[in-house]
């Protein structure tokens, strides 16, 4: 079955890692896996200023807090995003300023320049769906105005821009190990500091955060097990198992409902527990393979849509793109998604709102509808196709064929 979400990176060895951590409860307080994960990250980026958290938004929040923002201080970010990027700004007392996007679904340079004011303190550079932003231009502008650059690598661990690793350009970078991300420990994230001047204030904040509760950790460790079983029997009640497990809080949600209204759940921010570091470590070891698979599926989609003018896709503009998901734009995106579901293919809806997920309160997020026309247009048409390791090349071809066939059917009806 094709499923873009629900632990899409999960393989048997990840399952065994989760099981073993559930068994070795007495090791939960240690730091064996955290130390190994730190070493792997440090070697990968040639930088050991890495700090682990229980989510990407925790990492961003604690960093922004360390800047001691004053009332009116602004942080620029793009629209066509998730409230998990906006909320840390609000929680840290800053004001989000939204740019429009360009044809790579990333921050638009002209719009960035228009949004800079005397109160701008930082720019968050999202690498949407693992497509690298034009960071060289952004750095130039930031330098001219003495503004900090934060790379949001939640979608882009392992991506490169002009052959340099994404995450090594800005003053800091943060990563997510959320369930749908490049590597997954269900909940998790990291901050990497490239500018030593920012370290002292940040470490002062970092030392004050806590471990998450035992129940919260247990909830995350159960996620791979429950989803693995439920996905195996998805059409035979598995769907309801997932729904029920979430209802009784045996499974966590990626974004809680209160976050749609700018509120902070009490489990954020926390350290990454060692047992979840074990999951992230196991996945990190497979990073190149996971990303190679994503690129291969992207190539299949690209080939299929090359001669089609009804399906808009991003031209392969940088070899370093990792394609966490493969976005296309289609005027019948919702209908295709529904039809695919009937055939056992669950496609994705990042970001059908300029600030996702659906239900996010735009007023709380300080976004005025109508502000960023391209972002709103793309949000109204976007559909994401799976590139995850659980989707085979043959299944990707089936997904592409379904998208193409949908249009023929429509033409036939006319
Ligand atoms: C672009 C982007 N940045 C940051 C985040 C935050 O990551 P996390 O879910 O680990 O807090 C998300 C996740 O939802 C995201 O989509």
What is the CATH architecture annotation of the domain at 27-206?
3-Layer(aba) Sandwich
The beta-strand count equals: 16
Annotated CATH homologous superfamily of the domain at 27-206:
Type I PLP-dependent aspartate aminotransferase-like (Major domain)
Strand order, biggest sheet? 2-11-10-7-6-3-5
Alpha-carbon distance between the two ends: 32 Å
User: What fraction, in percent, of the residue positions are helical?
Assistant: 40-55%
Low-confidence stretches: none
Principal-axis shape equals globular
What is the C-level CATH assignment of the domain at 27-206?
Alpha Beta
Major sheet attributes:
7 strands, mixed
Could you please say which CATH topology of the domain at 27-206 applies here? Answer: Aspartate Aminotransferase, domain 2
- SSE series: EHHEHEEHEHEHEEEEEHHHHHEEHEEHEH
The percent range for strand residues is 5-15%
Q: List bound small molecules.
A: pyridoxal-5'-phosphate
Name the structural class: alpha/beta
What's the number of helices? 14
Rg (CA only): 20 Å
**Mean of residue pLDDT values:** 94
Descriptive terms for the model:
7-stranded mixed beta sheet, pyridoxal phosphate binding, alpha/beta, 3-stranded antiparallel beta sheet, Aspartate Aminotransferase, domain 2, globular, 14 helices, binds pyridoxal-5'-phosphate, 414 residues, 16 strands
